[in-house]
Amino acid sequence: MSVYKHAKSPSWQFDFQIKGYRFSGSTGVKKSRPKREAEKVEKDERRKAERLCEQVERAGREPLRLAAAADRWWDEIGSRKKETDLRGALDWLVEQIGPQAFLHEITNDDISRAMTERRKHVVKAGRDDEGRQLYRPISARTANRTAVLLLKRVMRRAFDAWDVTIFNWPKWGAHLAEETIRPVTEISIDEEERLLELDRDDYAAIREFATITGLRRSECLLTWPQVDFDNGVIRLVAKGGIPRIVPLSRRAYEILWAQRGRHKEAVFTYVATRTMREPRSRRAIIKGERYPITKEGLKSIQGRLFKRAGVKKRWHDLRHTAGMRTLRATGNLKLVQKQLGHANVATTAKFYADALVEDVRAGMEATAASVEARKAARADKASDGSK
Predict the structure, then answer these.
(1) Which among 193, 196, 233, 195 is positioned nearest to 213, based on CA atoms?
(2) How many whole angstroms from its chain centre is CA 38?
(3) Which of 44, 59, 102, 212 gets the highest tally of CB atoms within 10 A of its CB?
(4) How far is it, in rounded angstroms, from Cα 238 to Cα 240?
(5) Helices 201-213 and 189-198, interaxial angle, to 10°?
(6) What is the mean pLDDT of residues 25-30?
(7) From the centroid of its chain, how far is CA 159?
(8) Distances (CA, A) of 135 to 120, 146, 177
């Protein structure tokens, strides 16, 4: 039957196919109403669908399968994105829904099932005291980004740029997991000093630079062509492939200036303390020689440093610290947005607008004191009038 009742919907639903294209949705007629009313709506939907199919045939457009769409999207868009394991997520999504599935046939049920499976995935979460590997479920944000929103990006590209016809768009919002906003964690001055006491000078420099600028870990691994001392800026390609020009404060300028002459390409470097082979590249590391700081090395060495210093924070919290200090000093959320390179101030507000708890508390106390002072003044005035 092309008109039917669905347990999770208050209205009659329709579902039919015309020339290989599937059309489904709600008739808008409540299930308490007679079925014939819903069938009238379904007939109208059929007529619309037939006209659409005729238009598609005249335009000579061919249906597109998910595997082919994913490969083309990767070649045109995905391969240029600096997103962790995007290719792996795309391959998993294709296998989960089905490589041969036509884009126009992907249903809300297909997406719901894929999202359910994605939420079961886990990631490494450090080791316990006995050295055993620990795992945790992936975050809601990661699940959304690598399942629902990734499929949406592929289908939107197919529709907007490749002239692929998609009659029934999934209800994307209905499939998104609720994301928990992680509180902004700021590294205190005391914690910063404890880190400095235990750290080596070469790694302390890049950590201080990150705390001042608010750059991400990978963005801090600068090369000399990115540094413009004449104009006091650095140039980089930020998250999402967006070019950025980052101004240098006096102290940030001094940190970079002090690195000159140490390496012909990399800005931040370290002196090897022992001769060994680098785990990933297997290249020889000679004790006493200077080498570029790598993302993996920075993560490993600084992770151990934070633990030794008793600082239960992450490297990314240096970025939060930079944003919080600027917000506290200026009260200007727009300025924090520019400093952190957020494309939209709404992103900044999402994390930082509610972060100044102590400042809000101080404001509330000041308001309460003002109210009490006015009450006292009014009581004194009333007392003088009664004498």
Answers:
(1) 233
(2) 42
(3) 212
(4) 6
(5) 160
(6) 86
(7) 24
(8) 12, 19, 20
CA distances from 110 to 96, 105, 158 (A): 9, 9, 18
pLDDT in tens, 340-364: 888 888 888 877 776 666 666 767 7
> Structure tokens of 182?
């992680």
Q: How many residues does the chain have?
A: 387
**Token output for 371:** 């109210």
Cα–Cα distance, 36 to 16 (Å, whole number): 16
Cβ neighbours, 10 Å, residue 297: 16
Helix or strand (DSSP H, E) at 23: strand 21-30
Strand ranges in 158-283 using DSSP code E only, listed in sequence order = 227-228, 233-238, 242-247, 269-271, 276-277
- Which residue, chain included where needed, has tokens 């907007």? 160
Single out the residue of 253, 189, 213, 183 nearest to residue 338, CA to CA: 213
Q: Of 55-64, 169-178, 322-331, 359-368, give the lowest mean pLDDT range.
A: 55-64
CB of 22 closer than 8 Å to CB of 46: no
Sign, CA dihedral 199-203-208-214, equals negative
Instruction: Tell me the pLDDT tens digit for each residue of 255-272.
Output: 999 999 999 999 999 998
